User: What shape does this take?
Amino acid sequence: MRPATVALGIALAAAFAAPLIGVYPVFLMKLLCFAMFACAFNLLLGFTGMLSFGHAAFFGAAAYATGWLVTARGWGTLPAILAGVAAAAALGAAIGALAIRRRGIYFAMITMALAQLVYFVCLQAPFTGGENGLQGLPRGSLAGLLPLKSDVAMYYVVLAAFLGVYALIRRIVHSPFGQVLKAIRENESRAVSLGYEIERYKLVAFVLSATLAGLAGSLKALVLGFVTLSDVLQANSGEVILMTLLGGTGTFLGPVVGAGLVVTLEEYLSDVVGGWVTVIIGAVFVACVLLFRRGLVGELAALRSRR
Amino acid sequence: MADELILETRGLVKEFRGFVAVGGVDLAVRRGEIHALIGPNGAGKTTVFNLLTKVLSPTAGRILYAGEDITGLKPAAVARRGLVRSFQMSAVFPHLTVLENVRIALQRELGTSFHFWQPESSLGVLDQRARELLAEVGLEPYARMVAVELPYGRKRALEIATTLAAGPRLLLLDEPTQGMGHEDVDRVAALIQLAARERTVLMVEHNMNVVARIADTITVLQRGLVIASGPYAQVARDPQVVEAYMGADADALGGVPA
Ligand SMILES: Nc1ncnc2c1ncn2[C@@H]1O[C@H](COP(=O)(O)OP(=O)(O)OP(=O)(O)O)[C@@H](O)[C@H]1O
Ligand SMILES: [Mg+2]
Assistant: This one.
């Protein structure tokens, strides 16, 4: 067996065993949600070449939708998650349709501006709880069969969802559609000259990415039991970019590693150094960008292929 | 009469901020021919191609393709109607394999290009056809190589194979032999002749050897205007062509590639 396969097997076994050997499941779930968020983001940046500065909008909108439905409306867990994901998809279609007409930095700026608009809506709208956000989300049960109150049960659901998303993204990248995305990333005008309506492909990629980011947001809301403005804040969009770049864009595992690093640093350092944690993460980021341009996983892969 | 023409432009004009790059071009390309568009550097040849493929929109004028006015269409729509081009600057997908480059062009017909849930292996049905096209340009042995690693001449050959894979009825080639060695030039010229059996070819070409040998009709462009059009022998004798075009490049008509 190849070393990479072995490492992956060990990681998978560790993921399954983690809550049983005493690792704090809520921390792991948070990590998995952000890893899912980063993977969804990377589908766009790494595999389509579009840098979105507004992905928190999808993450946050889904979190709010799910949160509102389970608290104010008493919806079941699964329908509320699906509705949150659908909200993210619809928002993705709307923002994507406006943004994909531009390229590069203009694209990034439009996504940022529209995401800011979503933030203001969440701040002002009556159903989001304003500055307080939504508190006390019940986790309910999965289709009435599996109660999710226990952190361990919830953990396995989140882990399954993460693995599903990870597999789906691999499939998307290695599909006829993914092949066209690659062509567009490599040479847009050539793809057009071969008859591809590239805006449509970009829009589908954008909506897929927004949808999966939404799933991450909905799950995170249920895991922690609350939704706040920080979910939909610009800083959250920045964080997912950071995670992806740290780990390595255009690699499958990179965003997972990046998310793991950032979430872990935040979790353990904030107790020790308080507000300085953002400075430290910033410094790590700068160091990584300077030392490993391809990100941690990207550099590892490059090393291996050079040998 | 009009049936004979696959492509026609009427009064095609393109200005860039007042600079007239194409100044009212009437082009008539007959079905089944190899039609060469020649002219000195900066004459507006590539700009004409960009207008035909809708990369640029004309300041004025109309474009008729297969009897249809395509002036208002989008670039991808024009390509799907069978008007497919290659680029003057080599345009491959650098980090796809040679085989994948050609397959991308074949893939559209399969109708599964939005199927993000299907495995890549579903594209395997196209491999045979892709390899045949690669064989035609002598690239079969390199099928698994990443395109960026090909030497320049072979990249151009790959571009032609990709363009052919898109199923053109009118093939537009912008300087297909540029920067190639002798052997590659001959190979590409033969390939164009082969391709022209089933379709029309409009090509920009600086190499007069190639033009004299394979072109049925030649149109000479200078400073955005057509100064002559017709069979090679007739155009070569045209005093305006001799003076204007050849003045800059006196040996060109003698057959020495520039
Ligand atoms: N996008 C543009 N903006 C401004 N000017 C342009 C643009 N594209 C072309 N031009 C100008 O239009 C003129 C014609 O250019 P074009 O590329 O069509 O020439 P060409 O006949 O293809 O020349 P060559 O043989 O060098 O390829 C040139 O003077 C060029 O500088
Ligand atoms: Mg040119």
Q: What stands out?
A: Chain B has a mean pLDDT of 89. Chain B touches chain A through 37 residues (CB under 8 Å). Chain B has two domains: 1-82+170-258, 92-167.
